[in-house]
Structure formats: C-alpha cells, structure tokens
Amino acid sequence: MHAIQYEAPTTIEQAVGILSAHGESARPICGGTDILIQLRAGTRQPDYIVDIKRIPELSRISFDPKTGLRLGASVPCIQIFENQIMRQHYPGLTEAAHLIGSLQIQSRASVGGNLCNGSPAADTTPALIALGAVARLIGPKGERQVKAEDFVVSPGRTVIQPGELMVELLIPAPAAHTSDAYLRFIPRNEMDIAVVGVGASITLDGDKCVAARISLGAVAATPLLAAKASQSLAGKKIDAAKIEKAAELAMEQASPIDDMRGTAEFRKHLVGVLTRRTLERAIERARRN
Amino acid sequence: MAKRTSVETIINDDPCEFLCDPRQSLLEVLRDELHLTGTKEGCLTGDCGACTVLVDGRPVCSCLMLGVEARDHKIETIEGLAKGAELHPLQQKFLENASLQCGICTPGFLMSAKALLERIPRPTEADVRYHLAGNLCRCTGYDKIVKAVLEAARESG
Prior knowledge:
Largest sheet of chain B: 5 strands, mixed
Number of helices of chain A: 12
Low-confidence stretches of chain A: none
CATH architecture of the largest domain in chain B: Roll
Largest sheet of chain A: 5 strands, antiparallel
Number of strands of chain B: 5
Shape of chain A: globular
CATH class of the largest domain in chain A: Alpha Beta
Oligomer: heterodimer
Number of strands of chain A: 14
Structural class of chain B: alpha+beta
Strand content of chain B: 15-25%
Strand order of the largest sheet of chain A: 4-5-10-6-7
Number of domains of chain A: 3
C-alpha cells in the first residue's frame, strides 16, 4: 500500500514550505471528505498530506461592513450556517453550504475545499461566483488572487500550482438592497449531487436592477458565470419578462452533457427553471435588505 | 510502510495515546488499534453514517477522518454512552421501541442522536429526522428510531 506522511503546520509559511518542498506529491487536507475517498480509490496518490486546519488564518470567519468577508479556507460548512452574519449577509452561500451532504459531512467539509476539489457540480462554487468571491492564494513566489469563476479549469483541476495554498476567500460587503440565493435540482429531497445548480446575486434600486451575477453549476466542465444573462439585467427595471430573458440567456450559455443524473436536454431545461426561481428568491431577499 | 505516528487524544473522557499509520482512518484506528469495535464500518464513503463518532461534540464519519487528525480533539464513541451497566436513555429507548433489527447502523444513530440532544434538548420530529438524515437504516425504517429519540428527549428531565 502507498505510504503517506502527515504534516500539520501551524503557520502559512510552514505550510507553503512543506507544499513547495514536495510539489505535486503533497496535497492539503481540510475536511478530508473528498480526499479520503480519492485516496482509497487510488485516484489521488500524494506522498504528503498537509493538514491545514491548525493554521489560525485559515480557520476564521471575519466580516467588516466596509471591506466585506474573509472566509478562511478550512472553515467547515456547519460554522457557516450557524453564523448569524453569514445567514444575514450571504444567505445564498449559507444555503449552498447547508446543502452539502449530511451533518456528518458538514461538520468537516469546507467551502475552500469544495472549490479546490474542482468538481463541476460543487454546490458552494456557483454561490461564490455569484457573490464575486476571490480566492487568496499564497505560494513560494508570493501571493495572488483568483476569481471564483476562473478557479476551476477542468473537472478536478484548478489553477492552484504546486506549493500554493488557498488561505481564504474574500467576498465583497453587500451593497444596500443586495442579496443572493442558490438553488439546485436533485431527484430526491436531500443529500445528492446537483443535476444543475444556479446561484444569483442582485443589487436593487427600487424596481431597478443595479447589478446582477448569475452562475451555473453542473452544466459545463467547470462552474461558470453566466455573463450575458447577468448583464441583461443590469440597469433594467425588473419584471417577469426580464427574468425570463435572463433565464433564456443562461440556458444558451449552458453546455451540459448526458449522464446518469440527467440528459443534456433536461439539464438545459432546468437551467431555465432554476435561474428564474433563484433570481426571484434573491430579488425578494434584496427587497427586504 | 510509513513511520507510525504517536497521537495523543481524549476518547470517551479518557486521555489516550495511540500509534497509527498516517493512512489509517479514525475508524480503522478505533477498531483495529484500540479494539473499540462498537463503531461500525458501512460504506467507507461518508454516505451511510454507520461509523459516526463525535469529534468535539460534532457528528463525524470516522471513515472520512484520519486517525492522526484526532490529536488534541475530544472523541466520543458508542463505548462511552452507557455508564457501566446503566444504559444511556437513548439506548434504553431504542430497546423499548425495538428501534433496531440487525444493529449495524445503531451505534451511528445513537451518536448522531446524542449530538442532537446536546444541541437541541427538546427537538421536534422534524429536528430529529433532519439530524439523523446522515444515518441510513436498511432494516427497520426510521419511525421507531425517531420515536425512541423523541421519547428519550421527553423523559430526560
């Protein structure tokens, strides 16, 4: 059996040092809910497992009404939906974190890990894209920031380079009358992988949409920002026809495949339905803010 | 074989030190190294909840956590539930309501239920069903299990 070595650094510098020294053969672990399955299946065979849960900067949630949210990469989902600030300011991301697996999984799995796992169907990634989240990475060559929509490059692959560590996710403070939502379709009530997931964030000025971001999961090789659909709403008075138009544009941008969870045709249809519902939900919340 | 690592932790309120291979899951450590075989292996993918233990009071699938990650954490397993010969109220209610048949899922259900009652001492039926949703039973169905947890909550003071 392939042997591994376990390291549990307590500072970012130590973690980057270990990750840099071992390159592709080192893999960070947060909740472990994906990587332990991959280790058993042999789909990932790292020589070093670097536990990043003991680094304080990665384990905190901090919110400032001006500068926004800093969400540590290893914060488990359960801490997100138990956090009043998260529920109030980022309900869409909170509901996405609440949808991942069972409580047993939510007690361990993190939003940062969900993004780094690079699944096209990750529930929290469309929520992050809708919010305009940016991942802050630190590596041997220094620091860089990558937008959530640019982070996953193909199924299971991300922009993270050997030696790099995701420290936190930076999310802007919501402007007045702004809110977000995330909805997914699964063929059962709970605990399944999204057939389609749609995120939306919207800023209103009365009946007018100031800005919108619509994101799609499980309908392409990576989660994506539905740019045309998002732009179609900006500056417009919101009504049913505008929402319908945005849903149609989102459907055009989806390029799903047929698989065991659904046909491409069904997924396209779902993108339309979910885009409409997610927008309506985000709009209703934004009106209350 | 990797070097075995020494891990200090607390299991069922007792300080504990064990040696393990860094690849071993907490489930494997509990069963194969510490001979605490009450925690069961089910799917090994985090879907069934049979291996549920509490880590710092939170339910966790012990198949999805490395044994080495247990360092400095407080682990609770089914072996810590009864106080000597005295069953925990949840165990007692599971017996009275015949909430088990084959019994493989039972330790996991009991640990999830314990975590629930510590967080919500007076749960609604919806609370119970929600908090036990990560535990699968293929024998009884869930009604008798839910009933047992509700009764245990009602009668615990």
